[in-house]
Protein: Glucose-6-phosphate isomerase
Amino acid sequence: MLHFSRDFSFENTAAHQNMMDDAFASISEEYKSGEVGYYNLPHDSHALLDEVQELIQGNILLNSGQIKDIAVIGIGGSSLGIKAVNSLMLSKNLNTRRLHFFENSDPIDISRTMAKLRKENTLFIVISKSGSTIETTSIFKTIISYFDLELESVDSQRVIVITDKGSSLSLFAKHYGVKQFNISDNVGGRFSVLSAVGIVPLTLAGYDTKTLLDSAEGFLTRFFNHEEDHILEKACHFYEHSPMQSINVLFAYANDLENLCKWYVQLWGESLGKINTQEKNVGLTPIGLIGSIDQHSFLQLLIEGPKDKTVTFVSIEDFENDLSIPDVTLKHIEKTNFVNSNSFNTLINAQCDATRESLIQSGVSVDSIVFQRICEGNIGTMIIYYELLTSLVGAMLHVNTYDQPGVELGKDILYKKFGK
Amino acid sequence: MLHFSRDFSFENTAAHQNMMDDAFASISEEYKSGEVGYYNLPHDSHALLDEVQELIQGNILLNSGQIKDIAVIGIGGSSLGIKAVNSLMLSKNLNTRRLHFFENSDPIDISRTMAKLRKENTLFIVISKSGSTIETTSIFKTIISYFDLELESVDSQRVIVITDKGSSLSLFAKHYGVKQFNISDNVGGRFSVLSAVGIVPLTLAGYDTKTLLDSAEGFLTRFFNHEEDHILEKACHFYEHSPMQSINVLFAYANDLENLCKWYVQLWGESLGKINTQEKNVGLTPIGLIGSIDQHSFLQLLIEGPKDKTVTFVSIEDFENDLSIPDVTLKHIEKTNFVNSNSFNTLINAQCDATRESLIQSGVSVDSIVFQRICEGNIGTMIIYYELLTSLVGAMLHVNTYDQPGVELGKDILYKKFGK
Structure:
């Protein structure tokens, strides 16, 4: 269960209702027309679960239990969602196989991650929609060389590819007899975590991806049945306040939520930051914070700075960890004894509540999302919730939520730098 | 060497000159009057180096080489700066002792970090200016209980305290015979990395903190001799554009720069987000990004979204790592072969340059800071540079750069929740 609540006021005026109706109609049309593919993933990706089991049966390295580590080579939408789920679930599971990530063209980071792996225990998953992502192909070639992978022979089973049908990477896989999973053309990278991009590595790592998908599917169905209209109201509120509150903060109270924040930052920033149909530069700026740490960093700005931000608190009701502050008294530092014998679970959530109340008193627009506990089902709900919210705000802003034309210029300049 | 350059235009008008003169005079006065203490740290903290050596000589656990791990228990200004330096230097050094951080009231994180440590190899450093930070005292008590620390006897040498003179934590240390280092009253937490807060743990971990301080001192001296006036111009530009460009992005091209970005976020956000002397809510919003990763996330918003951001690129000229993209051709993915045989060092910096140029072409205000290489000296320069820049912008905004009154409300509410 995820519990959604809001502390900002929202009036159900006729103008608001029109705006919500239009956005709802717009994304319903995206769904029904098949123009935008992510809506189908919670249902359709169930087929991948069998396909992954077949892969495990048929792949000698996986089937024999040799593979202990999975190296994911991908960047942006090809890593952020996987990392978000993995970070949250890692402490819950005795994983079958452990995930590692190669996502940056940073030589120190690549060297460090390669040094952690041993070829005989590792499966390499190369993920790129287009198949020509410069970081991904460059790192893949470096890995081939470093681990001496013989793709023409034994090591073709040590590599898996996830890419668009017909992409250069897909053709590569066919050529070398490497197993591939495909992403639909109409699923954008940042909306792809419930496609093969996320489901294949997460299933191989031992997570309950069936429940992840079931839960997302349930929420999506309820949304399109108008049983989750609070999303419409939140989208409307965010859109309407966007001229003044152009920054949307996710304030998440747990270290392991940091990668979920990064996934959100990509989804929100890259989807909504656009030149819209009226040729205006629009967009909302996402920021991820971690509590209680950032109470000692960013909170001052939220409270006393310009009122240009909304804040969404994310917290975990039950950490399933009973670590408590012992009933110890230390001479001269008795002042904080009032939390003695409480669990850290209680403390961190009280800090979240106190911070939320202090923001409300300071006139900041606040809402909250509470994970009853961390599990695949609740993460699945969170993912589809944010994807739907993004699509709705995108419709209200009159942008193309699903493209990213602005990044091409930098790529062109890079190509020229290398004499292309 | 750090190389500073700017791509935004700046005219040296009389109005600008006045603004810069006033801010310079204002912070010179802070320095000379002794009202603000961080200006003295690069010089004064040299005395700590001897004090730490004496500690090592006199402490049987340190002197015998038993201590392999140092657990830092602190939050906000008591951890961010240490983490920033440690992350950058970790891959350079064969550390004498390894740093670990307890900074959040997150039970999963605390349990995980405790499980990594063994009592006999660990020194615990408790850092809190006030001595009554709820996370810090609660975690400290938990550690005492978990590791069965006997402060009354043998384990008093296993703990070090860093706190304000006369604080509750200082009295605690005196009572139990625990070694303490003090922070001056007039040094705020977020400006404290060059005080005992940073220098003691970093020196114990084996970093060259003398060079860190020397370099910061040199830069500070040059600044007050008007040999680094580019900071004045940047402060003036940021201040003047703050009504429209209220978000200042640090786009850092290396994974290990992430904690430096977090240090910057606290410094900038908490110092400048204030109710100013004219009772206005002012402030600039800091955001840290990592390249090339965030080219696949945030860049679209920078290019096509509202023009409400400045971007400062941070890059490393020489990673001192020669990992190269091998000259491998893979069937069907030849398109990215143009980078073959180049180092990742070359690739990531070309990506940084290309992204910078694409932002300039899109009308974004851009400047750059290049680390010739990562070393203590360059990090020291970067720290004092950003502290001076923050003070200057604070003077221009007419705020108290050094307090954080906004966070008290949440603390009061928290106390009440526990019946205080």
